[in-house]
Amino acid sequence: MTGTEVTTSGSYDYRLVALSVLIAVMASYAALDLAARVTAARGRIRFAWLLGGAAAMGTGIWSMHYIGMLAFSLPIPVLYDWPTVLLSLLAAVFTSAIALFVVSRQKMGWLAATVGSIIMGAGIATMHYTGMAAMRLPATCHYSSGIVILSVVLAIVISLVALGLTFRLRNDVKGKWLPKIASAVLMGAAIPVMHYTGMAAAGFGFTGETPDLSHAVSVSSLGITGITIVTFMVLGLAVLTSLIDRRFSILESSEERLRLIINTALDAVITMNAEGLVTNWNSEAEKTFGWSSQEALGRRLSEVIMPQRYREDHERGLLRFLSTGEGMTLRQRTEITALRRDGHEFPVEVATSPVRFGGQWIFSSFIRDITEQKRADEELLRAKLAAEDANRAKSIFLANMSHELRTPLNAIIGYSEMLEEETNELGKVAVVQDLQKIQSAGKHLLALINDILDLSKIEAGKMGLHVETFDVAQMVEELASTVQPAVAKNANTLKVEVTKNAGEMHADLTKVRQILLNLLSNACKFTDRGVISLKVNRRTIDHRDWLEFEVADTGIGFTAEQKENLFREFSQADTSIARKYGGTGLGLAITRRFIQMMRGTITVGSQPGRGSTFTVRLPVEVLAASVEPAPSQLPVAVPAESQSLQPDRGTILVIDDDPAVRDLTSRFLTKLGFQVVTAKSGVEGLQLAKKVHPLLITLDVMMPELDGWCVLKELKADPGLAEIPVIMVTIVDNEPMGIALGASDYLIKPVDRERLAVLVERYGLDRPSGETSAAFPGRATRH
Amino acid sequence: MPKILLVEDNEMNRDMLSRRLERRGYHIVTAGDGEQGLSMARVEAPDLILMDITLPEMDGWEVARLLKADESTRHIPIIALTARVLMSDQAKAFEVGCDDYDTKPVDFARLTEKIGNLLVEK
Description:
The complex is a heterodimer of chains A (783) and B (122).
Chain A: E1 6-8, E2 11-12, H1 14-40, H2 43-71, E3 72-73, E4 79-81, H3 82-103, H4 110-133, E5 135-136, E6 139-143, H5 145-169, H6 177-200, E7 202-206, E8 216-218, H7 221-264, E9 268-273, E10 278-281, H8 283-289, H9 293-296, H10 301-305, H11 308-324, E11 333-339, E12 345-357, E13 360-369, H12 371-426, H13 429-459, E14 467-471, H14 472-489, E15 493-498, E16 504-508, H15 509-525, E17 531-541, E18 544-553, H16 560-565, H17 575-581, H18 587-597, E19 601-607, E20 611-619, H19 640-643, E21 651-655, H20 659-671, E22 675-679, H21 682-692, E23 696-700, H22 708-717, E24 726-730, H23 735-741, E25 745-748, H24 753-764
Parallel strand pairs in A: 15-17, 21-22, 21-23, 23-24, 24-25
Antiparallel strand pairs in A: 1-7, 2-3, 4-5, 4-8, 6-7, 9-10, 9-13, 11-12, 12-13, 14-16, 17-18, 18-20, 19-20
Chain B: E1 3-7, H1 11-23, E2 27-31, H2 34-44, E3 48-52, H3 60-69, E4 78-82, H4 87-95, E5 100-103, H5 108-121
Parallel strand pairs in B: 1-2, 1-3, 3-4, 4-5
């Protein structure tokens, strides 16, 4: 400011100041709203939103600025140079464009925010001071440089805050209008702060000179009104457009989303109208049924996806639903047969829901091809049956084997006992000792066989529980005396402690005894000149009463690794143990199974070289029904040589009324390389026998109408068929009847595949023509 | 001297058991199959029968059933001997009318005790 001039000060028209603040708030709100639109839009639409938004916002800021200028009235007439005014408008629009661009990006880092706000602040300042420069008045305008800098800094800070707020609030979130309005008010108040700071920087000195008025215009109060109205209209229009655009885009995107969901669904999604015509057909439906959606739309649904024979029912069902509102298969999952374009029929799972839409019924169906699932189910069932068969066969085999082994053992043990007595009488001590060794080896073998049998019974699910009530102390006392010889053998001592309240127990006495006997004899076996203790306690855990038996020894113990194998069948701690201490390796496996059967637990602890402790907990009340189900066994593999396919070895006729047996048997025989023909009744079997003249017949006994025996009689009565070997397959154990009627051999259900293979090889293979096989070979060797 | 009929198809076991029982002072007659066992029981009228169950042709169950159905042999106590150790075998032994049951290989002391008991009861 220079001293020669007469300074003047202006005054504010506060109504116009208020109007300018209002416009600033409006512009801020529009900015927040527009930012959301720019963010949501892509490509050219985004560009259009950016431009339009910048124009509206720029207009708003600019008009706030001018109204603010006009609110400042000087005591001299003020005109405005319109090209400069236009320039300041451009600066406002440009600034807005920068601001919208920055806040609509995916991310806003500190750098972007800082640079953005500097550009924006500078833009606003440019607009402000350009606008001031547009003033034409008979006075000079001075600026206080400190306040100018302050105003620019304010502009930048305000811009930073505005950008941050806008970025935060740019996404349309329901119910977030309150923070949006609050930040619009904040921003709207802040912008005039900058403006009026800028104004305060200016001082006017009268010079009396006439300014250059070549482009100057005067702004009347009518002009102010015009500017205000236009500004409100522009901003209002921007917000309105933004609102409409948002509504549409939500609608559009939800429809698009739905369409995407349906089209990418893994089920065929089909809709049908009340006339039975296809109205929707997703891409999975195209894949499943082989019709493209153009082909399927508008056609009768029943004709597109249903085999001929079901169509009429479907149409009737539809009519019934439309008239009565009832439908058997609506609103639930059902399995039906569907038709593909190529005529292939396949199983599907369908869920159809009727929907009332616009006064009409439409039906939406989710359809899934379940061919694979069905096949997997069937295979699983077949595998399960085969596994059960195999397991049963194994158990029968083990039972038989143990019988076969016992017979010679009987002689070994018996003779050696007898000889021992006789030799003892003769006083030949050395021989007696040898005989005792034979005996003890024989008894060991017997124990082994018994254990195997026990285990096979447990696995076959044949081991039941025979619960009874008995006195625990008494049982333990008996046990102690039974185990005494074993204790004494390695010069051990036995300590027994039974709690006074042991009382009675309701359990399988034999099994409890065997469990404890196994543990005690193990302890004896692995301890030398030590102490073996048995402690019995009664405990209540989780409101249940338990008896706890603790068997401890001071023997060799075992390591953590050995513990892993402890309860496994046929595995002792290591092989050297077996050599040194003997034993079957089954004792603990059986012990554990018995404990499981009674729903008890067993835990072990040991330190190598220090001894081991086995703790068994059994419920005081064992339920008879708590028998462990037989563990499923994996299917026993068919021997390798029988899997190699030897095609065309001849035809075998399988006669059985049970489809599962027919299926399993024929699969198995086919694997062995035979052609298989099946008959589901005796009558059909006889016809087929005459027709195909098979190499061999397997014949079920129990069949409705014509049973196996009658079929066998008829076969043997026919000279053309009498020579064909017949293997009877039955659950009825009636061997003599079979022989009398001329059957070649005999299988008892469930059929042991291995045996079937043996018999088939025997009768089906090297059979010289014309020779009838001997009835029941191998019988003579059976005991 | 009580007379015991031993029905057992396995020659070795038959020989062994009969010799051991003879050493205990019993008079032993033997039969090698069910058919023979049936006729021997009728002819010899033993004081007790030791019946192996797994016999060819006619099995021990059948022989026992027939003997218990026959007025002339019903009173003779029968001990069934089987190498099968299934519970069902034991049940079946009593079902067909056997007086006692034991498993093979025989625990000789236990068997002689059972024989002694049945002979005393008689």
